[in-house]
Amino acid sequence: QDGAKIAGVGTRTLTIEGVKSLRGCRHACMADRIETLTFLAAGAITGGDIVVDGCSPGVITKELEALRVAGATIECMKQEGIDSPEQKIHVIGPKRLQPVSVITSTYPGFHTDFQPFFSTLMALADGQSTITETVIEGRFSHLGELAKMGAQIEIHNGDFTCPNGKQGQIATIDGVDTLHGANVYCHDLRAGAALLIAALAADGETVIENAPIIDRGYENIDGKLLGLRAYVSRQ
To answer: Which family does it belong to (predicted)?
Structure first.
């Protein structure tokens, strides 16, 4: 739209040919796909029924399909009243999640940033699943914390390396009927947010330590969850 010459949009490789000048245009920024997926996961794990506004479903197709296979009902709908490609997504969580094995990858594959949320969902699935992390090593810090809540998880090294040359890992998750509240620690942004949605589905109270790190990736996540009638407070 600005007059730039760019080939390969939507693929892993962009080829850009310089031009003498660019012109102005009006552009709508893409929605935050991980925030979108966070709330979709929250709806799925609690058996909830929620609508997430301001979404870009075209960039989370792999993740939406995984949620559908796990039993969630997902419907993408046009966002009325705004001049942008954004849509809203309606999610209805199942009575019991079904096990789904996934392998993380670079875009347009299954996003590594959604892996902590999806593995949390699988902790409550009706059967065994495997989560193979091929992008970033050490991305399973939340799983040890989930074990404190009753999750049944084993982690072992894979026979592959991540792009940085370090060994990747595979988590085998045997779903349990329920999680229970516990004191857990937020090791990083996505791990902390994953523990937050686990707490929504757990029996009893969960205390998440080092929670401010979650704020790096979300605006007013407490207020949004409270708006969904979750019980969340800061100490």
So the answer is: Belongs to the EPSP synthase family. MurA subfamily.
- Residue 141 confidence (pLDDT) above 60: yes
- C-alpha 5/C-alpha 43 separation (Å) is 41
- pLDDT, averaged across the chain: 93
pTM for the model: 0.90
Determine, yes or no, domain membership for 228: no
Tell me, yes or no, whether 118 lies in a domain: yes
Give Cβ neighbours of residue 118 (< 8 Å, ≥ 6 apart). Answer: 41, 63, 66, 100, 102, 131
Tell me what the mean pLDDT of segment 198-216 comes to.
Answer: 97
Contact in structure between 100 and 114 (CB atoms under 8 Å): no
- What type of residue sits at position 191? A
Q: Which of 214, 183, 179 is nearest to 198 (CA)?
A: 179
CATH number, residue 104:
3.65.10.10
- Give the Cα separation of 130 and 156 in Å (integer): 11
